[in-house]
TrEMBL record:
The chain crosses the membrane at residues 36-55, 76-103, 109-128. Coiled coil: none annotated. InterPro entries: DUF1468 (IPR009936). Residues 6-137 form the DUF1468 domain. It comes from Bordetella genomosp. 12. The keyword Membrane applies. Keywords: Membrane, Transmembrane, Transmembrane helix. This is DUF1468 domain-containing protein. Pfam families: TctB.
C-alpha cells in the first residue's frame, strides 16, 4: 500500500460520510448550524487530506513496528467500548476509563493515567456541559454533577 491508495480510500470515506451526514436533521432547532455540520466538516477535512495524498503521494508505506497492530486493534476495541458505555456510565467516568486505557496502552503509569483521566473527564464535562451548554450524559453520577 502506498500514499496514493490511502488517499483514494480517504476520498471514498469522505464521500460516504458526506452522503450519510447530509440528511441529519434535529427535530427542533437548538443550534444555529445544527447537527449536520460536524460530520460534513470532518468529511471535508478527510477529503482534503485524501486529495492531497492521492495527488502528491506515491511514497511507500513502511510496515508497522512489532506490537503496533495489536495496539491498533485494542484502540478500536477501546473506542467501541467507550461508545457503548458513554450513556450508561456517563461522560466523566467513561472518559476517565478511556483515558486510563489509552494511557496504559502507550506506557503511562497507573497513577498518572488515573489522575489524568479523572481530571480530563471532569474538566471536559464542565467545559462542554456547563460553559458551552452541550448536554452530556451524567450516567451514574447524574445526581452529583
Amino acid at each position: 500500500m502506498n500514499d496514493r491508495l490511502l488517499g483514494i480510500i480517504a476520498l471514498v470515506l469522505a464521500a460516504f460520510m458526506t452522503w450519510a451526514g447530509w440528511d441529519i436533521e434535529a427535530p427542533f432547532a437548538y443550534e444555529p448550524v445544527g447537527p449536520r455540520a460536524f460530520p460534513l466538516l470532518i468529511a471535508l477535512v478527510i477529503g482534503l487530506c485524501g486529495l492531497r495524498l492521492a495527488i502528491k503521494g506515491g511514497n511507500p508505506v513502511h510496515p508497522n513496528p512489532p506490537g503496533a497492530n495489536g495496539r491498533i486493534v485494542l484502540m478500536l476495541l477501546f473506542a467501541a467500548a467507550y461508545a457503548f458505555l458513554f450513556e450508561w456510565l456517563g461522560f466523566v467516568i467513561a472518559t476517565a476509563i478511556m483515558t486510563v486505557a489509552v494511557g496504559r496502552l502507550f506506557g503511562g503509569s497507573w497513577i498518572k493515567t488515573a489522575i489524568g483521566g479523572l481530571v480530563m473527564g471532569l474538566l471536559f464535562f464542565l467545559l462542554f456541559d456547563k460553559v458551552l451548554d452541550v448536554v452530556l450524559p451524567g450516567g451514574v453520577l447524574e445526581g452529583l454533577i
